[in-house]
Amino acid sequence: MLEVRNLHARVEGKEILRGIDLTVAAGEVHAIMGPNGSGKSTLAQVLAGRDTYEVTAGEVRYQGQDLLDMAPELRAVEGVFLGFQYPVEIPGLNSLYFLRAAVNAGRAHRGEEELDAMDFMALAKERMQAVEMGEDLLRRPVNAGFSGGEKKRAEIFQMTMLEPTLAILDETDSGLDIDALKVVAQGINLFRGPERAIILVTHYQRLLNYVVPDVVHVIHNGRLVKSGGKELARELEDTGYSWVEESAGEEPAAAADRSQGA
Amino acid sequence: MSQAASEHQGYLEDFEKLNARVSGNGGGWAGELRRRAMERFRHLGFPSTRHEEWKYTSLEPLRKACLRTPDVSGGAVAWRCDRFDSEGWDRHALTFPWDGANASPDGDGDDLFIGRLATAMEGRPPWVEAHLGRHADYDDHALRALNTAFLEDGGAVWLGPGRVLERPVHMAFAAVPEHASGGIVHPRTLVVAGAGSRLTLVETYSGSGEGVYCTNAVTEIVLEDDAELDHYRLVREGGGAFHLGTVQVHQARNSRYRSLSVTSGGSMTRVEINALLDGEGADCLLQGLYVAGGTQHVDNRTAIEHARPHATSRELYKGVLSGRSRAVFNGKIVVRKEAQKTDAQQSNKNLMLSRDAEIDSKPQLEILADDVRCSHGTTIGQLEEDELFYLRSRGLNEGLAKELLVHGFAGEVLDGIAIEPLREGVENGVLSELGI
């Protein structure tokens, strides 16, 4: 489904991704783990089409198409979803209105009829229950004044409404207490399926107790330095990321970059 | 003959025709009021941009256009074509020019008058003479002077003490393209709300087509003790039009005035809203949205004068500008020496959709009392990249994403319109001026 080859990207002249190679097949859940500044959020944003990052080399194919050549909205209606680490608050824009527009953009792209307000509401109510999200949140402006946990639930809820093929969830677990984490994990598990793939970007192993990945990658200094099964996550939890940094055998320039908070 | 005098010739001729037409209407005092106002206008002439209050807004194009007032009954408020979709809500409707059909919409009694100003002036009830022309000072304001000189008709509302109007009063002033070219009209409105009375007033000014015309409107509002008024003043004139307007509000003790002013359309629009908080505990809320695209010019001036202690004022004006449009916001707050415990807040926020648009925002605080809370703030920004990307990442194309964000920005003001069909009509109509 997704083929990332030798992906390089930079922001403001600084190289953040330094040759990512990643293959994700339908039905798989991949976890990408790494310390702060390793490039994991950048990877998520580049895949979703954020233009503040400049792709300097490499290619990404999504269902056979050149993903990097597609506008963010086209990626979205073609089935790519990014769950934001920091969901954006938009005061003044009603959540319900926004989400119906988003769902209908996807439907129009697929040549399906648009959902009217009533059908949309019925579907939304059903999907909200799965993430135990209060209906009142839908009546409020997008993410405005939501707590950290509410924002993350709302992201998962949006995902279940948009029914993407490839979901990239960027630190969806951060800032959640254990109950909220379980709810979010349940939402993700319900969403899993043979036609879909999920990339979980995370700093901690915690979420992976509830959403068990097929493959775990360790990202460091803009490269995937190690891949393995779910037990790799446990290993990282026990030993931290320091061994990765040592075994990665980085060159001095890279170390200097990191110390500047790359 | 000086240049100014020759430019005034058309106005003078039209003034004489008006006087012949309305002689007797309102008795000697109205004629006297018009004559004094015309004298003032002749003396003042149109202000130039050297005048501090007209620094950013030039009346040169209006002066040169030498617009004339139609010599027909009600000519000073002539023509109609409502660009605001006014369907779907229950109201007392007053449409100008007067169509005669809805002579006095269930509003003429011992404690109530809703109708034409011309009718009210004929009857000469005490509230007309006590207030008409007494609040909107024209001594130093050429356009208010001109409006007062051409005072002929418009809307009038009087509510006796304690009278509560459930249905809003809608005064629709509108221009038809085939008549509107080359004319200037001077609608005049008077609202007197007795002690403890309550109403909602909707004024709409609209036109279509590209013809050059001018609406020069003045509204006087008097709120006696404990009276409450929700006032929506909505402007969307035709493409070539000038709109000049003044709202002058006099607030007595514990009265509440809530204004929501939308300015859009036209080639040049300037609206001045002035509130005198002349009673303890008075409460004033001014909200505004201005929208301009292309080469439109929109100028909003507000002045809130705290004359008595313990009064509160809140103000939020927001602007959305695209193309090469230009906007001016001038928000003045005066706190007189005796107005202790004043609480006043003002905020002006601007969203610039183009590099070539321009805003001049000027808060103006004159505080003479020493125990007050006053604050003001201005922001000027663009659409947030983070917000745009968030919406696009959900499948909305760039145009739609921008549109939703602009609607969201404007919503903070427009959501204050409690009449839902009106709010929707305003939102869709007004924001289409941006061409996004």
What attributes does this structure have?
heterodimer, A: 262 residues, alpha/beta, Rossmann fold, four-stranded antiparallel β-sheet, 12 strands, 38% helix, globular, disordered C terminus, B: 436 residues, nine-stranded parallel β-sheet, 20 strands, 24% helix
Structure, described:
The complex is a heterodimer of chains A (262) and B (436). In chain A, 38% of the residues lie in helices and 27% in strands. In chain A, a hairpin with a 2-residue loop joins strand 11 and strand 12. Mean pLDDT of chain A is 89; it is low at 250-262. Chain A has one domain: 3-Layer(aba) Sandwich (Rossmann fold). The longest helix of chain A is centred in the middle third of the chain and has 15 residues, at 95-109. With 262 residues, chain A is α/β, with parallel strands linked by helices. Chain A is globular and about 55 Å long. In chain A, the strands form 3 sheets. A 6-stranded mixed beta sheet of chain A has the order 6-9-10-3-11-12, with helices on both faces. In chain A, strands 2-1-4-5 form a 4-stranded antiparallel beta sheet, with helices on one face. Chain B contains 10 helices and 20 strands. In chain B, strands 2, 3, 4, 6, 7, 9, 11, 13, 15, 17 and 19 form an 11-stranded mixed beta sheet that branches. Chain B has a 9-stranded parallel beta sheet with strand order 1-5-8-10-12-14-16-18-20. Helices cover 24% and strands 37% of the residues of chain B. Chain B starts with a helix and ends in a 5-residue tail after the last helix. In chain B, 52% of the residues are buried. Chain B has one domain. Chain B is globular, with a radius of gyration of 21 Å. In chain B, strand 2 and strand 3 (112-116) form a beta hairpin. Mean pLDDT of chain B is 89; it is low at 78-83. Chain B is α/β, with parallel strands linked by helices and 436 residues long. Chains A and B meet through helix 2, strand 7 and helix 3 of A and helix 8 and helix 9 of B.
